[in-house]
Amino acid sequence: MNFDNGHLSVIEGAERMMFRLDEIDELMQCSSDGEQDAITTHLNGEMDLHSVLAGHEAELSALREDFIQAHVDEAENICSLYMEFVECEKKLVQFEEEIIAFQRRLADSADDMVKMQQQTVSLVRSINNRRLGSSRLSEVYKVLQECDTFCDAIAQKDVDEKYLENISELEKKLSFFSSNKELEGSAVDLETRPRLQSAAMRAGDKLLRYFGKKILALTEAEDLASIEVQQQSLVETGRNAIGFLKSYNQPIAEAIFQDYARRMSEVFARHVRAVLHDFGELCVVNASSMDTIITADDVHDVMCNRDVGSPKGNHVTVAAQEIKFPVQPFPRRERSVSQHMRTFAGRILKSERPIKTRETTIYDTLAALSTMRIRDESFSLDATAALPLENVGCWSWHFLRCVHLIANLCVTECWFIRQFFFLLRKRTNLKEQRHLCVSCWGMQSMLPTTPFERTCRL
């Protein structure tokens, strides 16, 4: 029995030994080279592994106790550091709240500053308006004081440049009343208008005679350039007088315009007839084999001035001429006397040889068309490009010259009528002032409503 127990203990010891060997093999496989060397050294040595393990555990326990003691010793410092962190965080939060509050106060201050600036601007504007109103009131009061003096001078003195300057000065001073519709019917208007109307009635006949002489001088001008120069001078000196009459003595202003329209329509009709007559002769004398754009009937209608919008007295009855294009040039002996006289001066000044006119080609027609310059609604001819066409009987070139003269005549006359008779006190659109008007008489579809402006409309 004892033998059996001893045998079992040996077997258990062997199994335990085998189990330990298996653990040692697993430990050797999982360990590194250095650890394997240390384990091999301990196995080969005479030391007991249990004692070695106990020593290592004792060292680990000592190290654990030292580590715990070190943490216990530093715990107070760590806690104090943590409390300092918490306190700093609280201060940061408080500082951030103060910054936000400061930003809000700053925004409120900015709003207050903006409101103060707006109030300052409003105050400055109101002060300027008060100053402007005070200056206007002072100006109006001064005009009212000087109105009697101007009215006496307008009614009693003769018409000259000084007289017209006084009217211009009075018109400038009264521009405040004319531009402000709210003052119509006011006490100031009712006080000054009768005196101005009385002065205009007393000065009406004098101004009618004065402008009648100026219009007569326009009709006696030698050429259109002289008429334009006189018109510019008349606009500079007399348009304010016409505006004064339109405001306070409208019948006289209408009579002046009627006289101008009657006299100048005859003058311009005479100039246009001469131009169209010369153009008709050029069409016959300088005819070529080139087909024309305008037929003989159209030329006849233009020469007869068959315009339904023209006033009475401007229609001309001319016998119809059988002009058909293309025609052959007349022999020299059959040409009109006016054609010979037209080139006589040039032959005397240059040479005794007759001027030779070559036949028109398609290139001459294209060159004539290339001389046109249309810019800003104005029509002109390039003189440099027209030099090769001087000795060419080109119908297109002569037609363009005729149209250029008539167009410039219409533009100049419309400018004068607009500036002299219909001067607006307010500045209008520049593009609307540049409309190219073909005629300024008898435009029934554009008649205004007032009696004076019903006579003419640009």
TrEMBL record:
**One Gene Ontology cellular component annotation?**
cytosol
One of the Pfam families matching this protein, by short name = Vps52_CC
The record ties this protein, via PANTHER family, to: SUPPRESSOR OF ACTIN MUTATIONS 2/VACUOLAR PROTEIN SORTING 52 (PTHR14190), VACUOLAR PROTEIN SORTING-ASSOCIATED PROTEIN 52 HOMOLOG (PTHR14190:SF7)
Could you give a single Gene Ontology term from the biological process aspect? Answer: Golgi to vacuole transport
Give TM regions.
Answer: none
Stretches assigned to the Vps52 coiled-coil domain = 71-235
InterPro entries (UniProt xref): Vps52, Vps52_CC
Q: Name one GO molecular function term.
A: syntaxin binding
UniProt-recorded name of the protein: Leucine-rich repeat protein
